[in-house]
Amino acid sequence: MQIVKIEGFNAHCVAKGIEREVSLFMLQDESLEIGNFVMVHVGYAIQKMSAMEARSAWEVYDEMLALEAKGA
Fold it and tell me: Which residues contact 3 (CB under 8 A, 6 or more apart)?
């Protein structure tokens, strides 16, 4: 997800039209800024990612969803 707003250890993030409030607590030693991408798991940012890594992850997720929809 991409960070669009940061308030303390919380961030407002978006990805593919979905918006979430995300805790940055686990990445408090990272330098995070608006526009950065993070991997989110159960409401926590668990890894800072490059734009390319984020795009690649979404491509894989989209492929998995397409296969699931086909019943593969």
Answer: 11, 12, 13, 22, 32, 33, 34, 35, 36, 37, 38
The first and second tokens of residue 36, run together, are: 């950065």
Q: According to the model, what pLDDT value does residue 72 have?
A: 62
Q: Which CATH number fits domain 2-70: 3.40.50.300, 1.10.3720.10, 2.30.30.140, 3.40.50.1980?
A: 2.30.30.140
The helix (run of H) or strand (run of E) holding residue 5 is strand 2-7
Separation CA 14–CA 5 (nearest Å): 10
Supply the pTM of this predicted model: 0.87
Across the chain, which has 72 residues, the per-10-residue mean pLDDT values are 97 96 96 97 97 94 91 72
Return d(Cα 48, Cα 57) in angstroms, integer: 13
